[in-house]
Specification:
The protein is an alpha/beta fold. It is 48% helix and 11% strand. It is built from 20 helices and ten strands. The strands form two sheets. Strands 1, 2, 5, 6, 7, 8, 9 and 10 form an eight-stranded mixed sheet that branches. Strands 3-4 form a two-stranded antiparallel sheet.
Amino acid sequence: MGTVGIICEYNPFHNGHLRQLRLARERAGEDCALVCLMSGNYVQRGEPAIFPKQLRTEAALRCGADLVLELPLTVALSSAEGFASGGVSILTALGCDLLCFGTESENFDALLRSARANLDPAFDDLLRSELETGCSYAAARQRALERLGAGSGLASPNDILAVEYLKALLRQESSMEPLPILRPNTYHADTLDPEAPSASALRQQICRDKRCLSLRPSAQWFSAVPEALHALHEAAPLHSWEAGERAVLARVRTLSDEDFRALPFGSEGLWSKLMKACRACVSTEEILELVKSKRYSMTRVRRMLLCAFLGLTKADLEAPAPYVRILGFNQKGRGLLRDLKSRFPLVNAGERPADEAYYALECRAADLYSLFSMSGPRPAGEEERQRVVLISDQM
């Protein structure tokens, strides 16, 4: 039985994710096992996940996943390169045979050329040279790659991540083979396409329904979610950045200069710029707008601000995660676990691990997550109350 690894967020799980799981099983063989390494309560774009990790775990299991593991928080909040590298490292250690990911480019060879060019010893010097012209980081990277005869595959977030996954596979000499799945439509589409929805558009519609005090989710966003998940989502607690904004402001206004200096993503004085903005601005939107620039994207600044709120330092993000949590599984996933536990430290949801420092970090992040709830905060101690999700039936 082959094992397919998928690094994911499912923020939220929608019809496009269902299509990927079905195609992955179809191409890898019906008897394969699908292992999803999923971000927990915070996602790589530097925001709280719209639904808690337990609900997103159950959604994935009901729609075809066999085992859902939690991508460690310090990997989930890394740059695209760190996110991909950390995920590939874990799935390689677990012994997965294939790495499945979505792309918006039909030219896989071009993506692979871009990945190899990123690893070319000349790339860093070329990138630095282009940045010195004053262009944005994305433009500088594109120009540097073009000077190396590559550059295709960096137009969309999915393709950027695809290149990062390929880079990680090559750099780590991973035994996993890539299994790309073509994603129709565009990642940031403004309109909600039920068959291939944009996660951004879907989140916007969900929050719009909540603000309108709808008693039930609208047919518009329910059409983009597998029917088997409708009941699961009807009373689900929603989370948004806006709901927790005052908590974020309260936290960052109390940080010292050294706290800001220790933040990740703060090189070249960016930490100082963020510190001054946090002490002068009256909203997080104002902070983000003031700090972002051509060189430093909004997503990077947002991740930095979230790390400040959660108390995560550059050292935290650079240290390897000591374990991975088991969030849920079905019968096939249960059968995998004995072998996987012999390969990599796995800890059940809610279980107290031996590494007290990382556990304290997890607990703090879990307790702060509820402050982003649109229906109000919940009591502390959420990480200790977690339980593994067990599913016996699928779609």
